[in-house]
Amino acid sequence: MPGLGGDPWSARAVVHPTALYRIEGEPARRADGIYDRMSSVGAHELLVENVRHDRQLWDATDAEIERFLLLAAQRIQDLKRDPRFKYVSVFKNHGSNAGQEFEHPISQLTATTFVPRRVLYELRAGRDYFKAKERCVFCDILSQELQQNLRVLEVRGDFVALCPYAPRVPYETWIVPRTHDTAFERFGLSRPLLDLGGLLRRTLQRIRTVTSEFHLVLHTSPNTQHQSKSLDYWRTIDDDYHWHIEILPIVGGKAKSYTFKEVYYSPVTSETGVKRLRDAKIAG
Predict the structure, then answer these.
(1) How many domains is the chain built from?
(2) pLDDT in tens, 138-154
């Protein structure tokens, strides 16, 4: 991306030096008994957020973050032109307990020949809700949260930061656009993202008053340019899915003696969490 204020560039994408996936070849999915095996075909890139080493997202300007978000949208759009790739993920791991790999401000992107399980859960839940009510579940969540104003952290332009009703971890925060769109890249390449950049910056500043470690994940639609003939969650996806950003802080706490996958316990309610984050002293 072109630089700002005399900098040679503002954000750029490079291949991960130890990539999990390689762009060359075919998946060659095949049976191995009752299991499936395939080649590690895909893409694994570093999205360098800023030319400056000390400009993490919470310290950058809104315009700098907008350039990074635009880069992410462009890379998703480009990789979705490849029929081999079913899903493109963008995520940021910050802190040693989050799996941070580099000191420079970076996020990561992976393009895979499968849709990640967590996204499949959302796609199926969104489809089922739409079948029952003919409405987008995320739009309904936004409508209720804005009406009740119990868990809304901040509203900036078209974007809402909120703590979800049933958080998986303390201070879990979502950023959701009020305008319905299933695909981040389509949304991001058709309108300004300055307000999203500002809200992301301020939200991360708030979370960092609680913990400096977190996972950030962009949830967008799978590759609908090359739809599956057997999976039915593509049929109403433009109506039932809604792109958004999820931030999961890593807060140290007493370990539970027993846990069950996809059953979560948080000692901090979303209402308590949003009050602390709202009251946090942050930069403008």
Answers:
(1) 1
(2) 999 999 999 999 999 99
